[in-house]
Amino acid sequence: MHKKQIAVLVVVFAIMGGLFLMPVKGLIKAKDDPGHSRATVNQSKPVSKVVDVSVVSGAAKILIGASLSAQINDLEGQLKSATSDSDKLNLQRKLAKLWDDVNQPAPAAFYYQDIAQKENKFENWLNAGNRFNEAYRTSQDTAAQPTFVVNAIANYKNAVKLKPADLDAKTGLGIAYVNQTSSGITDPDGGSPMQGIMLLLDVVKQDPKNRNANLNLGLFAMKSGQFDKAIARFKTVIEQQPEAGPYFYMAESYKELGQKKEAIAAYQKCKELVTDPTFDQKIDDYIKELKN
Length: 292
Description:
By secondary structure, the chain is mainly α. It has a domain at 22-206: Tetratricopeptide repeat domain (Serine Threonine Protein Phosphatase 5, Tetratricopeptide repeat). The protein has 14 helices and no strands. The protein has helices at 3-21, 53-64, 66-81, 85-101, 105-119, 122-138, 145-162, 167-179, 193-206, 211-223, 227-240, 244-256, 260-273, 277-291. Helix 4 packs antiparallel against helix 5 (105-119), helix 6 (122-138) packs parallel to helix 8 and helix 8 packs antiparallel against helix 9.
């Protein structure tokens, strides 16, 4: 399987299931809530599970095929036998990039984290945090998600220490703070879902068209039942660059509001941007359901 084919499959899977596989269960809309600001913490305790690079790499290799797995196995073998720090760092960079190339954020995240711990550079901490957030978003393994959240928070905090005003790092940290509600964990240094939402709102105050902050505020608004606010966020994202994901989420929001015509139009836009028969059929089913 070629890398481009893998990327298409990952995109299709993420769009079709991403919103509903992303369990932001702790966000609850209050009757008097005027915006995104209210959140409560899900008190269920996470399942204890050791999650490290070997665990997530093993699972990811099943998805990428024998040829690419062989390349990664070879690099992993070299890393185990490497003796110098420079050789180890070079191999970790190669592994991080290779996992990025096949859209597998979990193993890439651990390698970027290793690199950051050696070099303490902003870009490496940010890369690690971004991949851990993405691993949390796309993973169906609820026992692994707490590890992804905890690591995301830690990496973003290190990034913020180096560049306190950076909006990408603030956005990532805000997302991770909200995500922790679903894992039954609380940042020991005081980071909360409320603080996460406030970070995201501060980002869009400084940069009203910020894609990542608006997209995630839209997703969190959906999870809290604020579909009108979600639609406004997704429109802002689409204005920057039309993408299938925001159109799909906007269609779902319109559907929840009973605005069938608008929902159908958004579904059709989404379909135009992803040329995959399985995805197309699913979208056609959604449209047919709305028309009946």
